[in-house]
Amino acid sequence: MSRDYDIIIIGTGPAGFSSAMQSSKFGKEVLVVESHKKYLGGTWINTGTVPSKALREAAKNILDFNEQFGDHEHKKPYERFQMDDLLQYKQEILEKENQKVKNDLIKNKVDVARGFGRLKGKHTVEVETHIGSTETYTADYILVSTGSSPIPPTNFEVDNDKVLDYKSILEITHIPRRLVVIGSGVNAIEYATIFAALGTRVTLLSDKKDYLTFLDHEIKEHLQNSLRKKGITIKKNVRVEDVSFSALRNFTEVKFRSKSEDKRLQVVETEHVLFLGGRKPNIDGLNLDTVGIKTDDRNFIETDDSFKTNVDNIYAAGDVIGFPRLASASFSQGRLAACNMFGIPALEVPDQIPYGIYAIPEISNIGITEQDAEEMGLDVTVGRAYFKNIAKGNMSNNSEGLLKLVFSTNSLKLLGVHILGADAANLIHLGQSVMSYGGDVRYFINHVMNYPTMSEAYRIAAFNGVNRVHKAGVKYKNILEDKSEE
């Protein structure tokens, strides 16, 4: 039976976009369905990764300028800079990225249908357009890549005025003097540090006993010290009971209680509240039950390792399938889904992928932590390099930071890399590359690196680690020998 397209992709976020590009390269007829009236790229470009990181870069530039050249007038950033300037910068980046996606789709002859797409059968997608009409398309394969959205709070409302969410915070018209961030995830830490860098007095309320528990303990300690220096107050294991605006005091009041022994009611006054809770998959209205697509207990779509659902010709990728819910992983998932559905040989997404936390300072990691190794009963050694001991770190006013290597004491095989500090999310890729081929820390010792660069941290950390091994009784000359044949 002849169908309209080889593949229909619902959603143009990182998974949908990469799948469309890969399918087009295979010579396939591709249709993408985008619900937004104007933009492409979903949360990735419009309200998530791109705009929030653009805002972060602007805030960091302001912080770096103040720290490097001083503030002789003793003014806070919010007294010297206008939020409009930051928002204009963010919007310019957003527009450029949107245009890039649009141009790539046009160049690769990918058709775009604007409207809300839903399944009408195993091979059929119905699109409800913005003018109220419906269009029906058929394809051999369908990819669902509709992303995720925030779970709203249960005991107060996001009014997008005093109480903001991940969308409305990107449209705030001024730099607030005070901000309460409610959340315990990566985004909460990122936004807390962004606004603290702008001079805002930030309070973070977390309903968890701790935050970012997956971090290496030393990286976590350095982060906590950095948060304290920025004046960020963190209240952990608390339950927010009410958020209300007091016209008399012209402040928003946030009432909360500790979940532990001290359950007295506490109140913090603020200009704005930023709510950053958990996320849920965007499956409402997709008619998954029409074709019998299975979801897990949190309603994320279930797939196998090839990203195929329980329906043979329907695949899913990106945030809509759950963990790890990273734009970087979604790009790979979408591409691999296209390869798998069209029978093109491709490698699987690696088990170990780098995580980037775009706080100030930046954090990134891959592989196991030192405490993971202890729990696994592995004999490991760690090597450290502090950014204050790196020439480039001091030249660029980025002396706050640490790079930590975790490696096998016996084989020197690299097992984990953990970084806090400037350009951490870029620096991690050198360690990722060495780990991907099963390499060891001698790579960093035996290869010449540009000087001065932040990459020098790898060499310093490697020497620091192998010196520990040497002191433990292993001959230094053997450490530097090539043991690749062993």
TrEMBL record:
Cofactor: FAD
One example of a Gene Ontology biological process annotation: 2-oxoglutarate metabolic process
EC numbers, comma separated: 1.6.1.1
Residues bound to FAD: 53, 117, 146-148, 319
Superkingdom, natural source: Bacteria
UniProt KW Cytoplasm keyword: yes
Pfam families: Pyr_redox_2 (PF07992), Pyr_redox_dim (PF02852)
Cellular component per GO, a single term: cytosol
Leading EC class: oxidoreductase
InterPro entries for the chain: Class-I_Pyr_Nuc-Dis_Oxidored, FAD/NAD-bd_sf, FAD/NAD-binding_dom, FAD/NAD-linked_Rdtase_dimer_sf, Pyr_nuc-diS_OxRdtase, Pyr_nucl-diS_OxRdtase_dimer
Domain FAD/NAD(P)-binding: 5-334
Cofactor remark: Binds 1 FAD per subunit.
Residues annotated as domain Pyridine nucleotide-disulphide oxidoreductase dimerisation: 353-460
Binding site for NAD(+): 183-190, 278
Record's keyword annotation contains Iron: no
Keywords: Cytoplasm, FAD, Flavoprotein, NAD, NADP, Nucleotide-binding, Oxidoreductase
Location within or outside the cell: Cytoplasm
GO MF entries: dihydrolipoyl dehydrogenase (NADH) activity; flavin adenine dinucleotide binding; NAD(P)+ transhydrogenase (Si-specific) activity
Similarity annotation: Belongs to the class-I pyridine nucleotide-disulfide oxidoreductase family.
Function: Conversion of NADPH, generated by peripheral catabolic pathways, to NADH, which can enter the respiratory chain for energy generation.
Entry protein name: Soluble pyridine nucleotide transhydrogenase
